[in-house]
Automatic annotation (TrEMBL):
Name assigned to this protein: dolichol kinase
Location(s) in or outside the cell: Endoplasmic reticulum membrane
Family classification: Belongs to the polyprenol kinase family.
GO MF entries: dolichol kinase activity
Membrane as UniProt keyword: yes
Native source organism of the sequence: Meloidogyne enterolobii
EC number: 2.7.1.108
Keywords associated with the record: Endoplasmic reticulum, Kinase, Membrane, Transferase, Transmembrane, Transmembrane helix
Membrane topology: Multi-pass membrane protein
Segments forming a coiled coil: none
Length: 365
């Protein structure tokens, strides 16, 4: 069924593509369709820089406005967002030396480039996003607060997005990662500053998943999770400059350390399959309750079992991703460093762990 939908969408998409391409080529003089890799790089760098400027400007204006006029209507903040988006769009049009219509076509074809691979990639990402939204709605309907396993579901969906993007279109993934991170920052500003009509809906979607690292006033875990898992990609600045960029193990370090390792560490450290408890640890007592013998054992609930699970699942996941030919000293060392970092951190682990893992890969790969 999924393949049939893909084919139907691709045919419909392809029928309208030729007329758009003709109009596009006649209205835009400098584009990435009639130029080479350097044109795509220039447009992406410009779009990333401008979007970050617009996002930061909107955040600063919103915080200042709400501080000076806390009881003011939310309409002005929504207008601020519209102005920030339009200003970014206009500035991007100036940088690519195109009119507003041509700029729209540039952005349109940056997303829908007419290839079957890009269409399938976008459909897969859309499916992951829909699953995450439906999962959040289901948890809201069934219980008041999500547990550790529920929260790690989002680690899985982001991991799938990153893995598929790295293998099929890493440059487009890097651009999408920046835009996704900016969107979540804006979402948290809307929720935190009680901007209507969004704040109540966002509270329902986000508050049920908070843990000890977040509070009702400020939820940074989703932002740190996105930033951490995309961090190895953001750190590799040569991706935006060199057409000879090659995919390496370090680009998956965010997925391995946070998406897989940290998820299994939390699940194994807090929950036990009854059969493992009976067979392996019946003489010790409750599985998942062997604390770390040093460091933050009095301030943290991290356990030896969770750390063991994190170390080995990173190696296993890397072997699966790379076809059982990725075992290397850098992988083992990175898994060890990220495991130790996770065991010693009480907060900020979604950002610090992938940073430690990526740095280890950069130094020893």
């Amino acid at each position: 069924m999924f393949l049939l939908i893909n084919r139907l969408l691709f045919k419909c998409f392809d029928l309208n593509l030729y007329s758009l391409k003709f109009e596009y080529k006649n209205s835009v003089s400098k584009t990435f369709m009639n130029k080479d890799f350097n044109s795509i790089v220039y447009n992406d760098k410009a779009l990333i820089g401008i979007s970050w400027i617009a996002t930061c400007s909107f955040v600063v204006m919103t915080l200042i406005r709400k501080r000076r006029f806390p009881c003011e209507s939310s309409l002005i903040i929504n207008i601020y967002l519209g102005l920030a988006v339009f200003a970014a769009y206009f500035l991007f049009a100036c940088l690519v030396e195109s009119d507003l219509k041509g700029t729209f076509l540039i952005l349109l074809f940056r997303v829908f480039d007419g290839t079957y691979k890009r269409l399938c990639l976008l459909l897969f990402w859309l499916l992951c996003a829909i699953e995450s939204i439906l999962f959040s709605i289901m948890i809201n309907c069934r219980q008041r607060k999500a547990n550790t396993t529920h929260r790690k579901f989002f680690h899985l969906t982001i991991s799938l997005i990153i893995i598929s993007g790295l293998y099929n279109d890493p440059l487009f993934l890097a651009l999408s990662g920046h835009l996704m991170l900016q969107i979540f920052i804006i979402i948290e500003i809307f929720r935190n500053q009680r901007i209507e009509p969004w704040s109540n809906f966002l509270d329902q979607m986000f508050l049920i998943f908070i843990d000890g690292q977040d509070s009702h006033d400020l939820i940074l875990t989703p932002i740190f999770l996105l930033a951490g898992m995309f961090l190895p990609l953001f750190m590799d600045t040569t991706m935006l400059y060199s057409p000879n960029w090659t995919l390496k193990q370090r680009h998956f370090s965010g997925v391995l350390s946070v998406g897989v390792g940290d998820s299994f560490a939390a699940i194994v450290g807090s929950r036990l399959l009854l059969i493992l408890k009976i067979v392996l640890f019946s003489s010790i007592g409750r599985f998942g309750r062997i604390p770390w013998p040093f460091g933050l054992k009095n301030k943290s609930c991290k356990t030896i079992e969770g750390s063991i699970a994190m170390f080995f699942t990173q190696i296993i996941a890397s072997e699966v991703i790379f076809g059982f030919c990725s075992l290397s000293p850098s992988l083992i060392l990175s898994a060890m460093v990220s495991t130790i970092a996770e065991a010693q951190l009480n907060s900020g682990d979604n950002l610090i762990i992938p940073f430690c893992s990526a740095i280890t890969f950069y130094l020893f790969e």
